[in-house]
Structure formats: C-alpha cells, structure tokens
Write a structure and sequence with these properties.
The protein is α+β, with helices and mostly antiparallel strands and about 210 residues long. The protein folds into two domains: about 100 residues, no CATH class; about 100 residues, Lipocalin (Beta Barrel), CATH 2.40.128. Helices cover about 45% and strands about 30% of the residues. The protein has an eight-stranded antiparallel beta barrel. The protein is elongated, with a radius of gyration of 26 Å. The protein starts with 7 loop residues before the first helix and ends with a strand.
Length: about 210
C-alpha cells in the first residue's frame, strides 16, 4: 500500500507550531544572563527571532494553502501557530532592543567616574572605576576624615540597576566585605556624565579624564 504524503499546508502548519517550541527549548538550554553575556544573548535572540518569523510566514502560507488542500489538519494548527509566533515576535523584538541598550550602557559605564553631587553629604570625594573585566575600585574620603577603599566585581541588570559585590575593603568598612551593594539605577549616561537614581536621590558623576 502506497504511503500517503502530507501536503505542504499540513507540513507548514506543523512547523509553525514547532518553531516557538524550538525557541523555548533553546532558551532552556542556554539560560544566559543578559547582564553578563549581552552580546551572546543578542545573537541568540536574533536566531530565535528568525525562527519565529519563519514560523509566522509558514502559518500564513499554510492558511492560504487551504484553497488547494482544504482545512483538514491545517486550519487550527495554522491559526494557533500564527498567533503564538506573532506574540513571540513582539516579545523578542523588545528583548533585542533591551539587550542592545544594555550593551551600550555597559560600554559607556566602563570608565573612571568622579561623583559631583548626591544626597549623601558624608563624602568629600568619591571615585568609581568600572573595568571591562567586570572588576571595580571605589575610593573616597569622608568629611569626618575616614577613607573608603574597596574593590570587587560589578554588573548592570537589564533594567539598568548597577550593583557591586565587595571582595576587598579597608579595615574601617569590613562589614561590607562579601556583600552585594546596589549603587543605583542608571537614569542617564553619555560620554561625559552618569546619573544614578538611588533611594535617597540622584547621584551625578563626571567621567574623569
């Protein structure tokens, strides 16, 4: 008995459903941090977006093919595939734009910053150096004469939250060692200035020459 070959419409409708499932599987297998691997995340997002676009186009093609092959095994799969792929595309487009903004912010953050003003008046001066290898150094002099000197690693989240993990600190601030400290959320950043939004108010930093 000859094997019945599936029509193009059925195959296209099925792939339109498999595309988002493949994207979910890729996400589960990779699970990369946007803050730590932004460029890799962008590349994976573009691959997933490509799969979603193909899945959406095949869903449309499958629905159009019903004129020739009929609605059996095509209509429901094609509609569901089109809706899911369309929703996924909107989500991934937003994720790609967010990742691109994060890459730009990270590149601009990698510098030596000097605080110009802020709600905490206990510091006479405060310098923050964010290095490309994700390490940081913070040094400052307090009004009472105390000196702050700490180092460790830094990261910025997809929402712009700048945080540091303290690895080394001077004797006067040993209670900070090993802790994760949120410095604030990046409100504005450019080649000359960084503004962090904190719970107490805005801190304004100038890029050191």
């Amino acid at each position: 008995m000859a094997e019945t070959r599936e029509s193009f419409g059925v195959q296209a409708a099925r792939f339109s459903l498999l595309a988002p499932l493949t994207v979910v599987l890729i996400g589960v297998l990779t699970r990369l941090s946007l803050g730590q691997f932004p460029r890799v995340v962008i590349a994976i997002a573009w691959i997933n977006a490509g799969l979603i676009v193909i899945g959406f186009l095949l869903a449309i093609a499958a629905l159009i093919s019903m004129r020739r092959f009929g609605p059996d095994r095509i209509l429901i799969q094609g509609i569901v595939g089109g809706v899911i792929n369309g929703a996924f595309f909107v989500i991934f487009l937003g994720a790609i734009m967010s990742a691109r903004a994060l890459v730009r912010n990270r590149e601009l953050l990698m510098s030596h910053w000097q605080m110009q003003s802020g709600p905490d008046k206990s510091f006479k001066s405060l310098d923050l150096t964010l290095k490309p290898d994700n390490t940081f150094v913070m040094e400052g002099d307090k009004v009472e004469g105390q000196h702050l000197n700490m180092a460790g690693t830094w990261d910025v989240s997809a929402r712009g939250l700048l945080g540091v993990k303290v690895g080394q600190v001077n004797a006067e601030n040993t209670d900070l060692k090993g802790k994760h400290v949120n410095l604030g959320t990046v409100k504005t950043i450019n080649e000359q200035q960084l503004i962090l939004s904190t719970d107490k108010g805005e801190e304004i930093y100038r890029r050191a020459p």
